[in-house]
Design goal:
Shape: flat
Radius of gyration: 23 Å
Number of strands: 0
Largest sheet: none
Helix content: 55-70%
Length: about 140
C-alpha cells in the first residue's frame, strides 16, 4: 500500500539510507540500485497522485508545511492518499480540506502527547514533612 504511518523512516528512506551506506545488509550494488530505483519510482508515483488530487493552492500550502515539518506533511499526504484509495475525497482537495486534515492530525497528536512533570523531593523541601520521618 502507498500510505504508511509517519512514525519512523519509510521504505523509500530506508532504501536511500542503505544505498548511501554502500548497500548494507548483504545486498549487491545492483540489488541496492534496483531497490533505490523502485523506491524513487514509488515516490514519483506518489507525487503525481498528489498533484492530481490537490488544487494548486493546497499543493502550495502542503509544500510550505513540508519545508518546516516534513514528517507532518508526509502524514497529511498519507491521509489524502488513503482517502483517495477509499474513494472518500469526492473531488480535489482544496486549501480548506487540507486545513481540516491538518487540524485532525494536530488533535490526534495533542491527545497522544502528554507531558507529566514530577517534582523531585529532596534537599530543598524543608517545609514539607519527610515520609521517612515517623516523629508525629
Amino acid at each position: 500500500s502507498l500510505a504508511m504511518s509517519g512514525g519512523g523512516p519509510n521504505a523509500d528512506q530506508m532504501a536511500a539510507m542503505q544505498a548511501q551506506m554502500g548497500g548494507a545488509g548483504g545486498m549487491s550494488q545492483e540489488q541496492a540500485a534496483a531497490q533505490q530505483q523502485q523506491a524513487q519510482e514509488m515516490e514519483e508515483k506518489r507525487q503525481s497522485m498528489l498533484v492530481a488530487l490537490l488544487t494548486p493552492e493546497a499543493r502550495e500550502r502542503l509544500g510550505n508545511i513540508a519545508l518546516v515539518k516534513p514528517d507532518k506533511a508526509r502524514q497529511v499526504e498519507d491521509v489524502i492518499l488513503m482517502n483517495a484509495q477509499r474513494g472518500a475525497l469526492g473531488g480535489r482537495v482544496n486549501e480548506d480540506t487540507l486545513k481540516s486534515i491538518l487540524n485532525q492530525i494536530n488533535e490526534k497528536q495533542a491527545k497522544t502527547t502528554k507531558v507529566t512533570i514530577q517534582r523531585r523531593r529532596g534537599l530543598w523541601d524543608s517545609d514539607e514533612s519527610d515520609p521517612e520521618d515517623d516523629s508525629d
